[in-house]
Design goal:
The protein is 43% helix and 21% strand. With 128 residues, it is α/β, with parallel strands linked by helices. The protein has a single domain, classed as 3-Layer(aba) Sandwich (Rossmann fold), CATH 3.40.50. It has a 5-stranded parallel β-sheet, sandwiched between helices. The protein contains 5 helices and 5 strands. Helix 1 links the parallel strand 1 and strand 2. The chain is globular.
Amino acid sequence: MKVRAYIVEDSPTIRENLIETLQELALVDPVGVAETEHEGKKWLSQNDDYWDLAIVDLFLKEGSGLNILEACRSRRPTQKMIVLSNHATNDVRWRCAQLGADAVFDKSTEIDALVDYCVKERGGRGGH
């Protein structure tokens, strides 16, 4: 079973590369994208049955990924919130965890770890 991922990332290049990588290596099914905090919060709250994983950048064209994390705190336990940022410092990781992030990955050094996380999520959902 594929993991349905919603991606909030304002850089078209990073977003396209991320989608391609996750589709190819982790069999992730991208169900939508947003570039702003407002778009991300609105879609995630209105489409609760249609996503398993949200991958959120912290610094967006408008707003912050931190506010998206906070808005999704009451999600189902099977829904995972992942932060993918160029600013994955220890302080940022701590703050994201406080707001309910399941994992935080650095865009420049931890893409492989993100792929591994997605593969494990798929395995936990009965996938192969």
